[in-house]
Amino acid sequence: MAWQGFDGRAFLTQAEHQTYLRRPPVRFARRGKSGDGSVCEVCGLPSTEDNPTQVSHLIPFMVGVQVYGFTPDYLDTDANLKWAHRTTCNKSLELSSEEIESLVAQLRVQEDVDGPSETL
Prior knowledge:
With 120 residues, this protein is mainly α.
């Protein structure tokens, strides 16, 4: 069967979530991020050989899928990805649990406005 995607949904259905709890999805972060990574989006300094930039998740990928029920597609969008220095900026970019829960609430409100949903 061909890949059907998540139809632009931010959240997994209960069945999808249960599947991903048993077998975590594969990440393709670079595919979803624009730009070339020459400048860190956290500190504004250029990438260096000693401290290169990498694609980093605001919502950590596995936490987003397993704890909050986000779709892998949503987690790999520009909205959740930033270029950050590997050793100095990456961890500071991650959202706290409270910040993630606030974002979840905002997205749920938007989902309700857009129509009924069977997501988590």
